[in-house]
From TrEMBL:
Enzyme Commission number(s) of this protein: 2.4.2.52
Keywords, sorted A to Z: ATP-binding, Nucleotide-binding, Transferase
PANTHER family attached to this UniProt entry: 2-(5''-TRIPHOSPHORIBOSYL)-3'-DEPHOSPHOCOENZYME-A SYNTHASE, TRIPHOSPHORIBOSYL-DEPHOSPHO-COA SYNTHASE
Catalytic function, reaction form: 3'-dephospho-CoA + ATP = 2'-(5''-triphospho-alpha-D-ribosyl)-3'-dephospho-CoA + adenine
One protein family per Pfam: CitG
Enzyme's top EC category: transferase
Superkingdom as given in the UniProt entry: Bacteria
Protein's name according to its UniProt entry: triphosphoribosyl-dephospho-CoA synthase
Amino acid sequence: MHKTHDNIPIIISELAVKALLYEVSATPKPGLVDRANNGAHRDMDFYTFIDSSVGLGQYFSEIVHLILDKYEDRSDPEIYLAPNAFFSDLQALGIEAERKMFKVTNHVNTHKGAIYALGLITCAVSEWLCIHKERPQSPDIFIKEITDRVGVYIQPVLTEQFSKVKEAHTYGEAQYRTLGLTGARGEAASGYMNARKWGLPVIEEALNKGVSLNDALIQALLVLMCHLEDSNVIGRHDYKTLELSQAKAKSVIDAGGVYTASGRHAIQQYDLWCIENYISHGGCADLLAVSLYLKLLSDKFYDKN
Ligand SMILES: CC(C)(COP(=O)(O)OP(=O)(O)OC[C@H]1O[C@@H](n2cnc3c(N)ncnc32)[C@H](O[C@H]2O[C@H](COP(=O)(O)OP(=O)(O)OP(=O)(O)O)[C@@H](O)[C@H]2O)[C@@H]1O)[C@@H](O)C(=O)NCCC(=O)NCCS
Ligand SMILES: Nc1ncnc2[nH]cnc12
């Protein structure tokens, strides 16, 4: 265990909740809930997300405790446990967190995708800290090792999980059948490749250029929107609508995104267009939170210790 951090469950769960709060606070997010409006959502607002985020702190710290307990008695201190040593316990925590979220939000899906994604990353970072005694070699290696580990959990079960489903109940399940898309599960199986390629580097580049954290998050969201096959957009509409919205996101970036006055105007127009056309890239919002969570974790365990 990393020597400098005694209170790992609290430290990690605070970072996860912070990532969720920063994501919903970033404004303006086209079609999504933010501080200015509810985007293309009729059943939730900024405060629903605050309630939902705050309610998830316990879940994240329970995951850390689960992993600390499992690693306490391991025979070889430097080797990862097989995922089946903890995965069913992790799933049980995820299902319970979803249940609590729906209770807090009055049956609205604020964070189902985030419970899954940030839960998996929380598990992987907790394992990493149990295995490694020293700080990471570099932030990039740290992030790669954590996200690769999530891939190790999910790759073997990806198709098996979909094939077990008799009748599609979610957008993700329906789109696997009709389009072969793997949605939130596929992102995890890839080791969060989209967040690592389009989310995190854009946040870092923008911060290096001196823009605010808010604007860095918006720029990263726009880039994610260009690339992610978001099951929310397809589920409400179809693949063509996704392509249309992605082309709009690209034109906003071409106009300068957060970096120019015309780019910022284009973001506002795109938000109005998403609202009018009932388009929400909810999966991109989740991957923005993933990107930010990875950054907060690497800042904590690499740069600033
Ligand atoms: C494996 C699960 C994630 C279950 O998956 P499901 O089959 O439900 O999968 P998906 O539909 O693929 O997505 C689940 C949520 O993930 C977000 N998401 C969507 N596309 C992507 C993507 N390409 N990459 C990553 N993430 C994605 C999405 O979250 C957003 O949607 C919310 C709104 O959704 P919804 O209410 O359905 O839609 P609306 O249009 O607003 O509603 P209507 O008006 O149409 O009714 C929004 O807030 C975003 O957050 C998806 O919701 C997982 O849940 C699971 O297995 N859980 C069990 C526990 C477990 O195993 N845990 C593992 C350890 S942690
Ligand atoms: N800000 C947001 N708006 C809508 N759906 C979301 N899912 C996660 N974050 C979201």
